[in-house]
Every structure is written in structure tokens, then in C-alpha cells.
Amino acid sequence: MSAIVRGAQLARMLNAWQVAVGVRGPAGKRxxxxxxxxxxxxxxxxGRLALGVRLPAERELAxxxxxxxxxxxxxxxxxxESGHVSSRRGAGSWTELPAGHRVGTxxxxxxxxxxxxxxxxxxxxxxxxxxxxxxxxAVTDLEPYQCGPGYQPMGLxxxxxxxxxxxxxxGLRTDxxxxxxxxxxxxxLDLLLRLLVAPGQRALVxxxxxxxxxxxxxxxxxxxxxxxxxxxxxxxxxxLSTVRAAQARVAYLIPEFHNPTGHLLPxxxxxxxxxxxxxxxTDLIIDESFVDLALExxxxxxxxxxxxxxxxxxxxLTIGGMSKAFWGGLRIGWVRGPAPLIARLAxxxxxxxxxxxxxxxxxxTRLLQRRDTIVAARRKQLLVQRDTLAAAxxxxxxxxxFVLPRGGMVIWAELDAPVSSALARSAEELGVRVAPGPRFxxxxxxxxxxxxxxTLPESDLVEAVRRLxxxxxxxxxxxxxxxxxxxxxx
Length: 490
Description:
This protein is of the alpha/beta class. 40% of the residues lie in helices and 14% in strands. The chain has helices at residues 7-14, 32-45, 58-65, 69-82, 131-141, 157-169, 185-196, 211-219, 236-246, 267-280, 297-300, 339-349, 358-369, 371-396, 420-429, 458-475; strands at residues 24-25, 28-29, 85-88, 92-95, 101-103, 109-111, 118-120, 179-182, 202-207, 223-228, 250-253, 283-287, 316-321, 333-336, 410-414, 432-436, 449-453. The chain has a seven-stranded mixed β-sheet, with helices on both faces. It has a four-stranded mixed β-sheet with strand order 7-16-17-15. The chain has a two-stranded antiparallel sheet with strand order 1-2. Helix 2 (32-45) crosses helix 4 and helix 7 packs across helix 12 (339-349). The longest helix is centred in the last third of the chain and has 26 residues, at 371-396. The chain starts with 6 loop residues before the first helix and ends in a 15-residue tail after the last helix.
């Protein structure tokens, strides 16, 4: 049976959808039914309205929104024509994916043809120049593995040794048997949830947090509880009390240059987290995707210890990968944890995808040998781009507020009004794709925030902010609602 969204539910999700009525597009002011259709598309874009969901009847939605049924009928027709809704007479209307669309880099539904679009929905960089040489060397490394079947659920020993060595260098003594290779960080999280979390069990996440992590918890049918990160980062007393009170099966945290806020978890709080989790019976899943991307040289030399360094009761599971510091196209991630649990995880992984590709693992091994050179270049480039984006925001959108991150790849901007979703839709019409704040909240809030990566060239960042400022101005232009016109009756 298809999932059904009721009129009142959809009305709450649409929230202030009429904020964009009268916003000028290529053809001038847009009618109300077009704005409503765009608002529904926006829910699909930011992931709050899933595919295959049955929409409320026209009369029901009209009553919930306090508008005419004619407007809803026209909006549904608009959605059918754009391929976002399919309908059968007497049976209802369902959300669907238009032909020629795909899942974009940020998890959003996007058109296949992205020519001319500045994509700020993705926090990732192109491959480093060293990739070609690493790939060529990996091919020469392949011969010894060709005589076997190629299935190694734990991952190649040579790569696990390299990763274990890196953890040991950071002060966290690690054996290769404590490391399992996965198909990226997202799969590492997914496999841990499959093993640890039964449907209906509670999971604690930060808010805001990484949207694809939220998707993984939802797919596992976990009961999500959240802890809010403030403008200054984590409140120690509140975080620890929340961990103890939630009694969650797992808690997911991003302590290094948190995605999307950019905060860095202090060492003192890292030390207190594992004991608090142990007391609550909670396993900590620590996402270290951005751990190598401290942008300030003095910080890179004095990063706080890994959370797992304070673990005395086997409660901390660390996930990491090659996507951020190296290249997202190399789908190599890993899990570090107690050896017995890693062995169980590898056994469970066999039923999912058997093992990671051998050649990709060899490429990753060669890239890790060049880690110092690659990471240093990434930090230098990202530092310049961060400062360029920050300067452009201060010049073009001075009412927006943000804390300049000391690492990572994104700025978490607080807007001057709760218009994030409407602004994202307006900006895409001007050729800029952004991920609105509600994508990063478990409950669809965060309308006053927007994540802005600084992973594009400087010229693109400056132009993207200019277009965002234009789109923000458009939202404030005087608008005339269709129901405000005087009607003469005779």
C-alpha cells in the first residue's frame, strides 16, 4: 500500500508557501497555482516529501490551505505536466520522478542536464592531480590478487594496514583487524545500523546533521531523537544529559568540522562522551569524514584526540573515508571498532555487496601514500575559497550571520528570515542550486538556515552569492495575491 500524506500534514510541510507568490520569474509574476506547484516540487527536492506518496484529494488540500479548489486542481495539473505527479481518475495522485531526472550529488532530485548551473548542493571537490598516477600504479599492484576470487569482505590487508597506521599516528593504537573497508562512509553507517539497530529502537542524532545520515536512520525505521547544536557548538552539560536520558541504541555525531555547522568538538567533551554513552547503553558512531581538513596550520598540528581514544568499554565506532580529502568518485570508506564487532560486521556485509572492489582499494592505498602532499594542497585551496565565500556573503548579504569555520568545506549561514526553501527554489531559477536548511533537520525545521559549501572555484562562489542575493531581493518585492483584487458583481 502506498504511503498517504493528509491535507493537514502537507499544509504543515508547505508552511509559508505563499511567500513566493508574485515573485518575478522569466515571464513576470507567477500565479498562485504555479507557486503552489513549485512549493510541492520543493518538498520533493529537499527530501521531505518522498516518491510514491499519495497526495491528499484536491478538496482536502484546499480546505487545509484555505484556498480555492480550483487553485489546487491547477497546481496538480502543473505537477502532472512536469512529471512530478501521476494521477488516475477516481484513484488519486502520487508523487513520482520526471523522466530524464536523476538523484543529484546532494541527494536531491535534479534534471540530467546541469549545464550552466552553479551547484552549491554538494560539499566535495574534484579529484586531485595525483589520482592518475595512483591509478596507474594500482594496476601494476593488481596481479597478485588476480589468482583469487577477489571477495574480501574485510577489505585488502594492505589498505587496512595503511588506515590502522594512520589511526596509530593520531594516538589511537589500531590493529588491521579493527578496520573493515566499505563502499564509502555512507555504506559504513548503513552497515552499522543494519547490525546494531532494530526497527523501532531509538537513535540519537544532532540537529542539524548530514541529510544522508538521516536517510539511513529512516530506512532502518529507527525512532529518532535529536540534540540541537547551538551557534557556539555543543553545550557540554546538555549533550551529556541528553545522551544519558535518551537511552538510545546508537548516537551519531560528527565531531570534526561538523557537517553542516563547521564546529569542532573540544577535547574535554570528547573525554566525557564514551563514559556517558556506556552508562546509557548507547554505542557512539563517530563520523570523521572531515578530520583531515583543518584549514589553519596551527590547528592542523593540534587537533584534539579521536573520541575513540577515550573509549574504555568498546562503545565507540569510528567511520571515515576518502570522499572529502581525496575524491568522492573513489567509493572507499571504513569502520574502526573492536575486532569482534568488525568480524560480525564483515559477516553481515556479505549479504549486502560481498566486498569492495579490489582495484579501488589499491588506488586508495596508493593515494594514502601521498596523503601529506594531497591534504596540504586541499587545505590551502579550501582556505582561499572559504575566505572568498565569506567575503562575498558579507558584501552581498550583510544581514546573514555565520561563524567562520576553522575546517571542513561548508559555511552554515543564518538567513535574515525563515525563507530557506523558498529561496532555494528562487535561486535555482537563477542558475544556483543550494540545499535549504530543512534538509539538515530531522523534523523539517531550519528554515532560517542554509548550507553553503566553498568547494567550487572562487569565481563561481562570488557569482553564486550574487545570484543568491538577487533571489533574496526577489522574495521581498511587493506582491499582489490573486484574492486581493476587487470583484464587481452584477
